[in-house]
Design goal:
The structure is a homodimer of 259-residue chains.
Chain A: E1 4-5, H1 6-33, H2 39-69, E2 70-72, E3 76-79, H3 87-107, H4 112-137, H5 142-173, H6 176-201, H7 209-245
Antiparallel strand pairs in A: 1-3, 2-3
């Protein structure tokens, strides 16, 4: 771990805390929003809540790990014996990225056997992407990082391809209002998922190790906020509109079983 | 406690944290899933939630115990005065294993007196299995470990036998869809419960004590994730299908008593 300036240490510290607050708030919101969509979309909100719940846990752990990994020694933050545990992110992604994909498929009008096939392929690709990325993340060797990063990119591209193709097919079937939201969802997916490889590759850019560490942590945090709570809000908007279109908004306390 | 490398210490540390997140997420999910199954299967989801809730608590404790049991002394983790408390696992199993068996019997269509008899026999066998295993777990003597391990295996085999026999009888009565899930449940039970004796016997294999400790903790954690949340998801799938088959999905706020 490199030595950090006060500003560098604080930036990550506050970014992690901000993310805890955002994930926690989203957890409460998605739980409460469940009863405002039709019965068939309620599981989508449950998945959204569980994703940000898992992220809240991991950000609390990362916050503690970050605080313990550095000590203020008169003007700079020097590393302690406790090493900042980057693995929390990978444990988080291992659980949440497959769930994000399940959430997406669940809100789309993909039915029956087709849906099961898509989910299995996406989940396997997501797990591969994360597991292959990890060895590169924890190494200090540039070549090793590049190798695993490249391997991890293959399932990443496959996921983007499947989503693009299947979102395209589904979009054609939806109302104009839902279509706009699905287009935004595509852009949001690309914008947020695109940040991860950039943050991942920061240590390769021959910049100051402290800057690379700080940039990576802040980058991952911003990407997580976009990819989980903001993404969940868009999914919620889609579920709301589709509930209205299908005239099946569930009055609280009298849910209609339409699934 | 043996001295560990950074990688060995981290592996257990992250496996324990990952399990906390998984158990906690499953707790939220099973609680929320309760209202999506028929009234007669809702208690199954309550039991599933309680099991992973108990496990979440014990894994939080184990995580703290593990962190306190070792200190980073420049490149290796050496044992502190605090001994890692293996008893948390046995306390957890003493509570959760009987509940796992009750959960299984509750989702099967075993009725009346027959059900009560099966539950009592399974619970007694489960308690015996865990209580007899513990003295062997905490000893350093190979012979003692083997003796108690063998004694503990007798009720274990009895449980597997009863489950196989009764699952077979019940499977013949169910729809093809449920039958496939019950077959998967059998395989999952065998795969997850089979890991425990292997992890238990690791210290007997004359391998490096650090490797044996790490292998045992990671093995137990994986087995717990399969035996509790993954098992609960399969049970939930069975409850969902049976609810639909019996056309008795309970609308929230107007629960239908069908039991």
């Amino acid at each position: 771990m490199p030595t950090l300036t006060l500003g560098q240490y604080d930036l990550v510290y506050n970014a992690l805390s901000f993310t805890i607050a955002t994930m926690g708030a989203a957890f409460v919101f998605f739980l409460l929003a469940r009863n405002t969509v039709a019965y068939k979309y309620q599981r989508v909100m449950v998945i959204a809540a569980i994703i940000v719940g898992i992220a809240t846990y991991h950000y609390v752990r990362m916050f503690s790990s970050w605080s313990a990994a550095f000590v203020n020694s008169g003007g700079t933050y020097t590393p302690t014996n406790e090493i900042f545990n980057e693995a929390y992110r990978y444990a988080d992604w291992l659980l949440t990225v497959p769930l994000l994909l399940v959430e997406l498929v669940a809100v789309l009008s993909i039915t029956g056997e087709r849906r099961k096939g898509v989910i299995i392929r996406l989940v396997v690709a997501a797990v591969l992407m994360i597991v292959l990325g990890y060895p590169g993340e924890v190494t200090l060797d540039v070549g090793t990082r590049l190798l695993w990063g490249t391997l991890s990119t293959i399932p990443f591209i496959y996921i983007v391809y499947v989503l693009w193709r299947d979102l395209g097919v589904v979009m054609a079937r939806e109302s104009p209002e839902v279509r706009v939201l699905l287009r935004n969802l595509r852009l949001l997916l690309l914008a947020s998922w695109g940040v991860y490889p950039i943050a991942y590759l920061l240590p390769l850019l021959n910049i100051d190790p402290a800057m690379a560490l700080v940039g990576r942590q802040v980058g991952y945090s911003i990407a997580d906020v976009v990819a989980k709570p903001a993404y969940g809000l868009l999914i919620y908007a889609i579920a709301r509109i589709k509930s209205e279109e299908e005239q099946a908004i569930a009055p609280v306390g009298a849910l209609v079983a339409t699934d």
